[in-house]
Design goal:
heterodimer; A: ABC transporter involved in vitamin B12 uptake, BtuC; two-stranded antiparallel ribbon; 17 helices; 2 strands; B: two-stranded antiparallel sheet
Chain lengths: 369, 357
């Protein structure tokens, strides 16, 4: 398990989600060669690819935050959907109570919802970092209670957000051919990547995730880093809730982003990141999130019964995870070595055997640590 | 030797269990004080068991897995799947009550075997595999039968309406009629399972092995315990219990429904944590888990009796969970701090008064 935290890095990590994505696209192309067709309706691009980008916007943002939290605390935050519901209920409340709605109102309401997101992140982060609670247990609290809190903030069932600005944010701004959520997601990803590149967060977060005690001895405060990652996840949930509520046009506290936490954790896992913490790759998680969306839509396009979609998705995920598990990979590696030796001949067997013995003994020693 | 036995501290598991039991009794006492009319009756207490027997059985299964250091979030979905499958089987005309019981066990066992193999032998993260298991069970459930299915087979209806009546523990209702205490068979199943599993975890080799595996995987390997097999068995047991819980659910409600037992896994996790299990594993007394589930249910009953908006039920559950989690972790942290001792050579140790040469 320790090797998994340190190993997968760089391009190798992205191979898994990319190959899955390619397989899915191939399946789609086989089904119908017009998969990549794009049409312009009402001045906006529509088609399979834009629809996928549109549909996966919130999932991508949540996966980015979840990756950071997984890497630094070694556990998952199952309250992201609920936190998004709470922050978006604050947003809707502020917008509906404002007298005149302008861009400034929307912006200020969004900033307020971000502040609430940071507060929620601080709550979860305090439990995880200071009280040493397992992340899944700590976030179970909000998971249980959060939607009721959102309902209380709403004041009534499903308040409707029906003004010009949020409609445009939810679908298309006239004059720009790409739907707004896609642009917002793109801007978010760019800002996040710039943030990661210009600060030390990636290094510190990985260090804290791999070995908190060693991080502390090196002068990195694990409490502070974990708290920071949870607060960043809070901002991500605020952004995701904002996009979801403007897309839907109303705030449904029961069903908003209902199973998104599971999808986000899946995206992180498909992206090749270790769920027990350590090194992470944001690009892997982003590709993983889009892969899940492509998987959902592929199943719909293959005219699978809507009732059976979940079962197919589950089978797909199990096969994927099994193939990418370390035990199966070792088994396959030993198998190909055996095959190569049988084909190659005696000298190759001996040379390969010595080299592999050295590699295996090294990896065994570091595995047992 | 006698002095050592007297000074031996209470174990972490028992301490957490004691906290859970005390809080449950306090809460029930509070309920009795404030609503004596409803809570003082035995019927209320046994109703908690009868109506929520599936949840209690699921909490037991989940606690076993949590003691081994894993997690199983597919239990609710598997329970729902079992109810629908048994309902379809019973209504198909070729069904029998015994056959449906076997079917329930078989489905639970299948899920337990699959997930246990993938988690224990292929060493995949339990969260992902059981999440996929949950999706699979949900998908199979909607595939098999989408609409609610009421089971009208006479044998089954007879079983469903069967009640164990204890005449002397009854109470008189407002009209003055005496109603004897009625316990549904589901409650009996739950009670029997609690006793059996508590014996299993405390006094069998498998139980002791599971505590060791949950506490520290590597140390268990060095002790010679077959870690993979132990974990595998814990998941199989959890699957079996989900199957039993599904049949009990069907027995209680009498109909198969798509939304059956959805969300039960989170309630079961909350109940386990309140009952003293820790997600990191190796800690927890199994009798604590039904107590944790009952505490959660008592809170819900209290809120309903108080006539408060039902939205506050989940908020109150969340607050209770929060208090428990913080309390548990603080208590364990304090204990760990005081028992930390430096390994110093004897001439550097603080002077001891008793028996050193």
């Amino acid at each position: 398990m320790t090797m998994a935290k340190i190993k997968a890095h760089g391009f190798h990590q992205v191979v898994l989600p990319l190959s899955v994505l390619l397989i899915l696209i191939l399946i789609n192309l086989i089904k119908g060669a017009d998969y990549f067709s794009i049409s312009i309706i009402n001045g906006a691009l529509y088609g399979n690819i834009p629809n996928i980008l549109f549909g996966a916007s919130e999932l991508v943002i949540l996966s980015i935050g979840m990756t950071l939290v997984t890497s630094s605390s070694g556990g998952q935050d199952i309250s992201v959907g609920v936190a998004a519901t709470i922050t978006s209920s604050v947003f809707v409340r502020l917008v509906l109570n404002a007298g005149q709605i302008t861009w400034m109102t929307i912006l200020l309401a969004f900033l307020a919802s971000c502040a609430i997101g940071i507060l929620i992140g601080a709550f979860n982060g305090t439990l995880v970092a200071i009280f040493n609670v397992q992340p899944m247990v700590a976030t179970l609290i909000l998971y249980t209670a959060g939607r009721s809190i959102a309902f209380l903030i709403d004041g009534k069932l499903s308040p409707i957000l029906a003004n010009n600005f949020t409609n445009q944010i939810g679908s298309v701004i006239p004059g720009i051919p790409i739907q707004t959520p896609i642009i917002l997601t793109f801007v978010f990803i760019v800002l996040f990547v710039i943030f990661l590149k210009t600060t030390n967060l990636k290094l510190y977060s990985e260090t804290v995730g791999i070995n908190p005690k060693a991080a502390r001895l090196n002068g990195i405060d694990p409490v502070r880093i974990k708290l920071l990652t949870y607060m960043i996840l809070g901002i991500c949930t605020a952004a995701a809730g904002f996009i979801a509520v403007t897309k839907a046009g109303r705030h449904d506290s029961v069903n908003l982003l209902k199973y998104s936490e599971m999808d986000a954790i899946l995206a992180v896992a498909i992206g090749g990141n270790a769920l027990s913490g350590g090194k992470f790759s944001i690009s892997g998680s982003i590709i993983g999130a889009y892969t899940i969306e492509v998987l959902n839509r592929t199943l719909l396009r293959l005219e699978v019964d809507p009732e059976t979609i979940k079962a197919f998705k589950a089978a797909f995920i199990i096969i994927l995870i099994v193939i990418s598990s370390s035990v199966v990979r070792e088994f396959l590696a030993k198998g190909t070595k055996w095959v190569r030796a049988r084909i190659g001949g005696a000298e190759q067997i001996q040379a390969a055997g010595e080299a592999d013995a050295a590699v295996i003994s090294n990896s065994d020693i570091s595995e047992k640590k | 030797m006698n002095m050592n036995q007297r000074n031996e501290k209470i174990s972490n598991s028992d301490l957490l269990f004691a906290i859970a039991a005390i809080i449950f009794m306090l809460m029930y006492g509070f309920a009795i004080l404030y609503y004596p009319h409803s809570f003082l009756q035995f019927q209320t207490f046994f109703d908690l068991f009868s109506l929520n027997a599936p949840l209690i059985i699921l909490t037991l299964g989940l606690s076993i897995v949590m003691i081994g250091g894993g997690i199983d979030i597919s239990v609710g979905a598997v329970t729902g799947l079992v109810t629908m499958c048994c309902a379809v089987f019973l209504e198909s005309g070729r069904g029998s009550v015994g056959g449906s019981m076997l079917l329930a066990l078989a489905i639970g066992l299948a899920f337990g075997l699959l997930q246990g193999f993938l988690i224990a032998y292929l060493e995949i993260q339990p969260f992902i595999i059981t999440l996929a298991g949950m999706y699979l069970a949900n998908g199979l459930l909607t595939t098999i039968h989408k609409d609610p299915l009421n089971v009208r087979m006479p044998d089954f209806v007879h079983l469903r309406d069967f009640e164990i009546v204890i005449p002397w523990l009854g109470n008189s209702n407002r009209l003055g009629n005496f109603i004897p205490l009625a316990i549904k068979p589901g409650a009996v199943v739950a009670l029997v399972l609690i006793i059996l599993l508590a014996i299993l975890m405390h006094w069998s080799r498998f139980g002791r092995n599971l505590y060791a595996v949950g506490g520290n995987n590597q140390s268990a390997v060095m002790l010679g315990i077959n870690v993979k097999r132990t974990k595998f068995y814990s998941y199989v047991l959890c699957g079996l219990l989900s199957g039993i819980a599904g049949f009990v659910f069907l027995m209680t409600t009498g109909a198969g429904n798509v939304g059956n037992a959805s969300g039960f896994e989170m309630k079961a996790i909350a109940g386990s944590i309140i009952g003293g299990m820790m997600l990191s594993g190796g800690v927890g007394n199994l009798i604590g888990s039904p107590i944790g589930a009952l505490t959660l249910l008592t809170i819900n009953e209290l809120i309903r009796a108080a006539g408060v908006n039902s939205n506050f039920q989940s908020i109150a559950s969340g607050i209770l969970l929060c208090i428990f989690i913080v309390l548990q972790n603080v208590v364990l942290w304090l204990r760990a701090k005081s028992s930390f001792k430096l390994a110093l050579p004897s001439w550097l140790m603080p002077s001891k008064k008793t028996g050193r040469a």
